[in-house]
Amino acid sequence: ATGEAWQDIMLSCLPPKAKCDKQSENFDPTESCGSPFAYPYFISFYTLCSFLIINLFVAVIMDNFDYLTRDWSILGPHHLDEFIALWSEYDPDAKGRIKHLDVVT
Questions:
Q1: 37 and 60 co-located in one domain
Q2: What is the pLDDT of residues 45-70, one digit of tens each?
């Protein structure tokens, strides 16, 4: 899960020189010889996955940070604008006071 010792797996997938060389005295035709493409495959796979995992990890942290710092206030600026417009109907002189009968209606 951590990617530790991935190079050992890569080296195991390479063809072993002693058992896969036909001129070697240890040649074993029944032995699976691996693939010379193990180097580019494992290096590109590990590089791609490590960058992908890092980006996903950072994205989760940033998303949670955005969620926690979001402004959860009930009233927004448009509510204040509506209140000012309605208040100015009842207090056209802008004295900051309205009649008690206007509150009920």
A1: yes
A2: 888 888 888 899 999 999 999 988 88
Give residue 78's domain range: 72-105
- pTM to 2 decimal places: 0.44
C-alpha span between 90 and 104 (Å, rounded):
12
* Angstrom distance (rounded) from CA 7 to CA 34: 15
Asked whether the beta carbons of 54 and 33 are under 8 A apart, the reply is no
Indicate the pLDDT class of residue 21, thresholds 50, 70 and 90: low
Contact 90, 102 (CB under 8 A): yes
CA–CA dist 67, 73 (Å, integer): 14
Please determine, for residue 25, whether its predicted confidence score (pLDDT) is greater than 80.
no
The number of angstroms, rounded, from the C-alpha of 12 to the middle of its chain's C-alpha atoms is: 33
- Structurally, how many domains does the chain consist of? 2
One-letter amino acid for residue 71 of the chain:
D
Q: Can you tell me the distance from the alpha carbon of 26 to that of 53, in angstroms, rounded to the nearest whole number? A: 42
